[in-house]
Structure formats: structure tokens, C-alpha cells
Amino acid sequence: MNTDSIHVIGGGLAGCEAAWQIARAGVPVVLHEMRPERRTDAHQTDTLAELVCSNSFRSDDADHNAVGVLHQEMRRLGSVILACGDAHKVPAGGALAVDREGFSLAVQTAIENEPLIQIERSEVDGLPPEDWSSVIIATGPLTSPALTTAIAKLTGEDSLAFFDAIAPIVTKDSVDFDIAWFQSRYDKGEGSDYINCPMTKEQYDAFLDALIAGEKTVFKDWEKDTPYFEGCLPIEVMAERGQETLRYGPMKPVGLTNPHAPEKKPWAIVQLRQDNALGTLYNLVGFQTKLKYGAQNEVFRMIPGLEKAEFVRLGGIHRNTFLNAPRLLDRSFRLKAMPRLRFAGQITGCEGYVESAAIGLLVGRIAAAERLGDTFATPPQTTALGALYEHITGGARETTYQPMNVNFGLFPDLLPAEGRKENGRKLKGRDRKHAYAVRAARDLETWLGTVPRAAE
Predict the structure, then answer these.
(1) Where are the beta strands (DSSP E) in 87-203?
(2) Domain end (from 272, 300, 319)
(3) Whole-number mean pLDDT of the chain?
């Protein structure tokens, strides 16, 4: 057993979760965060676990949604990220959305108050010192250029990056509620968790034209070939894919009734989701953008109800960094070229706040078990945690590896007895998703019976 400190580089969701799990296992850990010594293009504060994009952890439905299943599994494993998320929840229909400032402060307070965690506020500007025998790199989408270069040289990878984008935030008081109204799609959650702004066909067509024509961020030569992540495309990139793309995406008009004109069905609808506990700020759902600030002020005020909107944060774009994990990492998330280094979070090629924290949780537990001389049995692939683990450590194709959210497509197929109704017909839709969720919950509990109590 070796009880030397494990070093975790990166104070985001994955790094904080990894450090928390290591400390809970009884192993000391040093958490390195470069802010405020070195700033990033996307962070606004120096707080640990800052949410730089959306404030939503997405669906909290543990019966029919893969990310909701992942939420529940992380709760069962003592996740500090889910605990703080639950403590700072704001209305969001069936989703788990949080007051971003309250959430981040809660995570930081928990980390600061854990006696086995030491926080170092300085940049690790290259490969970690050789006397750090166990290191977890959880620097996520905003890895410093120096560390990115060092990793690229070590792995021989030509590209470790893709682009991600940030949605704008407006004040609630600046929304015109003679046009907009509160309602959740299909009245989920509390039934009135979103602000809805309706568009006629003429307004929608004009809006699309302005989106496509608006002045956009110009990438540097070395950035031009960096791909977007499909799950977080800029709104104008979606608009360029076809006239109906947004109407079948973030602006779909289904499941909502305009109380100002109940007899008239909107052609498209823009939704805004609560962004803080006070309910004073709302973000434009699905409106990540690379439009320049001046264009955003003009184009987004074309949305009915937002003509006089006060934007407290405009959208932006930043470059994310991730590894070709199936090629470069082993089954314990260790870098094959230098096994003392492990990777966790978005840099491994998972996508999403919850997925990032989930991989931090697993990697933290694996590293702690190694330090204590134990063997950590990874969760079965039939669970959300296990499905993500398998995808990153070998389940995906090296040649086409891209960031991935958790989804039931990563889970093994249901057995015939699990995937059919009593009459022999194959389960479909929500029934099939429910069967995946039931199996995951069952198999997680069986697996938990093999996990040492000290790790719970």
C-alpha cells in the first residue's frame, strides 16, 4: 500500500469529483487549478467546478433516460457533483438544472473542507514532475496550451481539439410577457419551467436569414480544421444545414400552447431556461453561437418577446480538447505511453457535465484502489457508468472516435426475456428505455455489493 498523495490536475467537475472520491477512500490528494494564475477564454470566475456553458445537467428521469440513470447511479456512489447539484436545483421541467453560482460555491466549499484534499492554485505548464507517481489529468475542454502541447508530443497525436460554444443569458425582467409565456413542453416538471417565445413562419424565415448572414468569429489558420461536437452545434451552423433544421431541433413548436393566441399554432418556438436560484436570469436553450457580439445583439432581438432583452452574457466559442481514448488509454484510464498519468472527464472524449463528472468518479476510485493495493471492479456495461467506461476504454472505434453523451445506444442489447412483452412482441420506445433503466438499477445494486465499504 502506498499512501503518497495522488495529484489531480484541473478543478472542473471531473477533477473535483475525482479528488473527492480519492479522499473519501482515505488517500491524500493534491488538486491543481491554474485559475486565477492563468485565465481561460470561457471562465468568468476563479471558483472550482464553474459551469461555463449551460446550467443544465439534462434529464433527471431515471426511468426512461440514460442521463437520468447516470444521475441516480452517481448519487448512489456519493458524488459530490450530484449532491451539490441537487442542493442548488432550479426549475427546469424534467431536467436537473442548477443555480450556477450556488452550485460551484458548494462544490468548492466541500473540497476546501475535506482534510485529505490540498488545493494548489498554479498552472502545471507541461508534463507533471517525475516524482508524481500517480496523476489524474482532468483539465477538460480548456486544457492550457502548454499542457496540450506536452500531451500531443507524448502521444504523437496531430489534433486534440474541437469547438464548443456558449449560449447567451438574458434578464427575466427584460422579456416581454405580452408575447412570451411560461410553460414546459408537454407540461413536464412543474409545468411552467421555461419561457417560450413564439415565431410565425415569416418571423422564422427572417430570423434564419439573419443568423446565416450575421458576422461570425473568424478562426485562426491553425483552428480552421477543428471539428464541432454534434451535440453542441452553434445555432447558425444548424441553420445552415437546412430551413427546417431548427424547427426539428431547439426551436420545435410541439407540446406547447400560446395562451395569448391559443387558436394559432406557432411555426417555431425559442425556449429560455432559468439560470439562477433567484429566477432573474434565463439562458436561450440550444443557442450556442459563434456570432460576434454586435450580431448577437441584433439577431437575437429579432426573437419575439426579446426585442428589448438585456443580455448579461452573450454567447461565445472556445476550443475543446480531447484524446483518442480507445487508442491512447488502457482499461484503467492510464496513458499507454506513460502509465503514471491517467485522464478523466471531457479530455477522454465523453461529452456533458454529468458524463465528465462520472468519469472523474470512476478514475478517482480506480486510482485510489491502486494506491491502497486493492483491485477496483468496474461497473457492468449494463449500467450507465459501465457503458461510458466501455465506450471510452475500447468500445468505440479509434478511427471515428468523437465526444459522446451517455445514451442507451452504448448499453448492451436487452436479453430476449427483458426486451419483449408478455405477448412476445418486442418492446419499443419508452417501454424499451424503461427496460434498460430497470436492468441498470438492478445490476448497479448487485455490483455495489462487491465495492469495498470504504469507497462508498
Answers:
(1) 89-90, 95-98, 117-120, 135-137, 161-166, 169-171, 181-182, 194-199
(2) 319
(3) 90
Identify whether the C-beta of residue 29 lies closer than 8 Å to the C-beta of residue 16. no
Cα-Cα-Cα-Cα torsion 201, 202, 204, 209, nearest 10 degrees, comes to: 140
Q: Is residue 73 in some structural domain?
A: yes
Q: What is the dihedral of CA 325, 165, 144, 52, to 10 degrees?
A: -100
pTM of the predicted structure, to 2 decimals: 0.81
Answer yes or no: is 361 within a domain. yes
Residue ranges in the chain modelled with pLDDT below 50: 222, 454-456
pLDDT of 220 reads 62
Quick one: pLDDT at residue 299?
A: 96
Radius of gyration of the chain (CA): 22
CATH of the domain at 219: 2.40.30.260
Q: Could you tell me if 75 and 38 are in contact, meaning their C-beta atoms sit under 8 angstroms apart?
A: no
- Comparing CA positions, the residue from 319, 367, 320 lying closest to residue 343 is 367
The predicted structure's pLDDT at residue 431: 94
* Residue 1 in domain: no
281 with 363, same domain: the answer is no
Give the number of domains in the chain.
2
Residue 156 structural domain: 6-160+322-455
Q: How far is residue 434 CA from its own chain's centroid?
A: 23
Q: Are 294 and 215 in contact (CB under 8 A)?
A: yes
